[in-house]
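ingest -> validate -> predict -> emit
validate: passed (alphabet ok, no gaps, 248 aa)
predict: started
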Amino acid sequence: MKQMRGFTLIELAIVLVIITILIGGLAVPLSAQIQARRIAETRRDMEAIHDALIGYAMSNTHTLATGEIRHYLPCPDANNDGLEEIHNGSGNCIGNITRGGLPWITLGVKGADAWGNRYTYAADLRYTNNLNGFISTPMASATSANLNIFPNAPCTSPAVMEDVPAVVVSHGPQGRGALNMNIGSTPLPPASVAADERQNLNVALASLPCGDETRFVSHNPTDNFDDQVMWLSRNELFNRVCPAGGCL
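emit:
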């Protein structure tokens, strides 16, 4: 009768090592797939925010005494409640704020990116004024905008994009310095955060490397920069909200 032979401890150890190596090899691609999925999800959400801003401008108008109809964009959210700030007697956002959180409840969009961090949102005061609104024609006298996108934090190089009415920032997979949806107040930017990312944060003006809250940074991802920056150009806003020069 043939005797059955079991595995030796050495054989079992070799099998476990092989299984560990295989699992370790699969873990990295799986992690990369999850990260890629979250990046794509955030991009889709930012496209929805882009369209929601245009939709807001289409729906929110002020009629002047002359009968002219003016459109405007939402104010930033200053207290992280998801609602746009109210306007003062001059039509400007209360406190004349340009940069804050995204008013996601007002816009009816997701309140955070795929990593659970709040978006930073900025809008030119001339575009959020609910009494004067913006003018699209003639182009020579169209409402100007002062938000600019630069390739790096000194903000001295030629701008990537100039004179945009609105900007939205996702602070990326690392979320360095971003407000997490489970935290009740905006954290100070960590000292380790690169200047390029600090310039995009929703923080006090003194903490911004370029010393200007109307300037943002956008470039390809690096070890020190993983923000996703979306902006709404004047021409696109005019063409979508004011077809045939309807914003006068």
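The mean pLDDT is 87.
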